[in-house]
Amino acid sequence: MDSGKGATTSQQMGSLTEDLRERHQQELENLTLTTQPFKTLRLFLLAIFQYYKRLALYLLAKGGWLALSSTLIAALGILLVTIEGPHEKHVDELSQYIRFGLWWIALGVASSIGLGSGLHTFVLYLGPHIALFTIKAMQCGRVDLKSAPYDTIQLKRGPSWLDKSCEEFGPPLFSSTHGSRVPLSSILQQVQLEAILWGIGTALGELPPYFISRAASESGREFDAMEELDGSSSEDTGVIAALLEKIKRWLLSHSQHLNFFTILILASVPNPLFDLAGIMCGQFGIPFWEFFLSTLIGKAFIKTYIQMVFIISICNNQLLDWIENELIWVLGFVPGFDTFLPTLTAKLHAAKDKYLSTSQPLPSNIKGKWDLSFALIWNTVVWLMLMNFFVKIVNATAQRYYKKQMDEQVGDNVSASTHSD
């Protein structure tokens, strides 16, 4: 009889635990800034406080030398900044390089962090920067436009060369009878430093998923993203979503083949699946240096140079010449087009000259209105994307903290029922 009562009690506790999990799952899905803003913010702040508390305890316990060296470096930096002397110009130059490096690395981190919800700063900053520099170089026929390597787009500051006229730089250094012919390699040398720094940032942004997944694997648990992939059903009706789901499942089933070269290939090709590769590398115990070095080489060099060459080629008049020649060659085989080819060629040349010509200076009032409207639209788009990124980070952090609390509560209930039996 006692065994029958025990079995009944265990079944009841199992049913209660399952009901509790379902209720917790519903609460977790409703925990967002739009549905429960105060609770979500409170849990987010608690999670941040807990993280920094653990970090401080870790530094006090094991990183005393790190804290001491950081304090000494900070004190030396403050001394150099506050004390006047001939070193000021060198300190100012160094601070410019530090701001430049931190800016582009931070943009790279923001572009890759967040498991697919990252802020795509290549489209917002690096891509337009390379395109604008290429167009300016084509218009002026020279690449020595920057006043310094750090003369790029930065926070609340644009490059000095963007608003200058070509006469201020001097006569063209690359020219021919049909306009400027700036070699791709010359432009590449001028924009590769910021692009590589951005690529290093994207590689650093892949480390959090790897470390979280590795910690979960070492503790005997499965990372949340892996659980969602295993338990996800085919609810997404889109063709692209279904295709990505199939690719993710194939990648998961072949994860035992992950090594330096496969990770390098995945990191070198622009794709939305590398976050999953980072998670799997942590889940299946790929060594850190094997993962990080392959990711760094792939993202900071191979992928970055592919993107740079692509953007420069699009904005390069050599590409326009190639398209023009190929189009004329193809149309030459079409009967009846021979009579239209001279007119078509003249129109293509006019369009190319208009595209590459140096714009005439506008009146100050029109230029001011145009700059104001463009800056307003651009800043609005950037801030909307930043707000969306921040909302996703807050929601994900609060949900993860709340899920951990719920798992502990369910575990306590199971332990209590076991002891009562």
TrEMBL record:
The chain crosses the membrane at residues 55-83, 103-126, 258-279, 291-315, 327-350, 370-391. It comes from the Eukaryota. It comes from Gossypium raimondii. This is Vacuole membrane protein KMS1. Keywords: Membrane, Transmembrane, Transmembrane helix.
